[in-house]
Amino acid sequence: MDERTKADVDELIARAAKDLVKSEYAIALTGAGISTESGVPDFRGPSGVWTKNPEAERRAYQGYQNFINDPKAWWLERLASRASGPLGNLEEVNPNAGHRALVSLESMGILRCVITQNVDGLHEKAGTRNLLEFHGNFRKLRCIRCESRFGRGEFDLNALAREGRLPPTCPRCGGIVKTDSVAFGEPIPQYVMRRSLIEAERCDLILICGTSAVVYPFASLPRVARQSAMNSSHPLTIVEVNAEPTALTYDGISDYLIRGKTGEVLPKVAELAVGLTV
Question: For residue 102, which of 14, 58, 230, 263 sits 20 to 30 Å off, Cα-Cα?
């Protein structure tokens, strides 16, 4: 990075800190880019899981329909596989400086909600309190009828398999339970979708962190926010922190882009915000 570019980035970081501090209701949207810095692979990047293995992507597209067709067989297949999953062993992965910076902004009362595409549970592990996991969490299970969520430890899945009692059923409504991670073709849980739209329409600042904004309906949230602000004439600032421009940049949805790694940019933003609030 040359000196001019670095100065431009530093100027935008300072601008973001000021915008956050003066905001009344700021939210963050996060994607794979914030987790790759913790060692979690993405799916479609140059070294992505599906870039390297297109067959794995094809199987992923079939997974939810397989569950609907035969949930018992789906669970038996999952339990028989000892593989750690396409993203590796997420239990061993830890939050990075970007996750912790968002927690800091939340603890200051600046950031009101984090909505994430990521299923790795790193925001929760970092300590984010007001969190919407748009695509679920690999550590949890969910009833597909009432949407109740459970820790994996609340079901002895191996015992259920031995006793021929798969799929697990919800103790609250009797519905079928699956993993919480949202599969292709599976609807976003209504509660999460509804809350996410409310947050998007309510906010006056969005901090977009490490997402290329191509996976819908998550990618529609900044556009929903922009349209809501235009319809109601309330102020809205959308700040991108991404390694490269996105459709949100090119379409004028975001106000400005800070090019860089979230783990480097966000801590600087949070540090400056602390100084502005003292």
Answer: 230
